[in-house]
Amino acid sequence: MRLLYSKPSPYSSKVRMAAHLCDLDIELVPTNTADEGVELTQSNPIGKIPALILDDGSTLYDSRVICEYLDRLAGNPIIPQAPDAWAATKRVEALADGMTEAAMAALYEKRYRPEPMWYEPWMDKQWRRAHRALDALEHEVEGLPETPTLAHLAVASDLAWVQLRFPEELNGRHPALAAWLDRFFESHPDLAALKPVA
Ligand SMILES: N[C@@H](CCC(=O)N[C@@H](CS)C(=O)NCC(=O)O)C(=O)O
């Protein structure tokens, strides 16, 4: 299997952590989404990473679908299958990824639009969304089980991305989450090696 990814991408980081815990070997293909290259757009018409190319040439996206697939291939080591535990895991994943989606929308506003066109009320809305999600994550991480699940991977990759792009948001505004992230990566150095980096 081959994974179209980039090093700073939080969703790619989550998939790489999942593949690691599922003990699956995946070839990594560095991919710049700005190029809208043929391999990317043929693998994922939406033109986003991560995208997984399976051995038979078929493809999978987005990160949540890829993680589900890897977990099934490996016999469910990271997604509990009992309904309540499954729901708790997937809710935290959706919350962490949704937080990142909002913060990334605010980032993209400044990255991809000329400054005179930046629309502050829209960026403010994204940050209100991200802040609510970060507040909720502070409570959610307290209830996570000891053994890492997909929920831990989503929270860790998403928080590490916030720390990379908006360090003050995590270290200054959410020190409890920053401390959780430090503790998690200290206990799991193999996963720390897969966090988003510039
Ligand atoms: N919901 C998707 C989100 C994927 C996503 O937004 N990926 C970003 C990189 S982390 C991307 O490809 N951005 C390029 C763009 O939006 O043009 C997932 O979980 O895979």
UniProtKB/TrEMBL annotation:
One of its GO terms (molecular function) is glutathione transferase activity. Its EC number is 2.5.1.18. The keyword Transferase applies. It holds the Pfam family GST_C_2. Residues 1-78 form the GST N-terminal domain. One of its GO terms (biological process) is L-phenylalanine catabolic process. InterPro entries: Glutathione-S-Trfase_C_sf, Glutathione_S-Trfase, Glutathione_S-Trfase_N, Thioredoxin-like_sf. Keywords: Transferase. This is Glutathione S-transferase. It comes from Aureimonas phyllosphaerae.
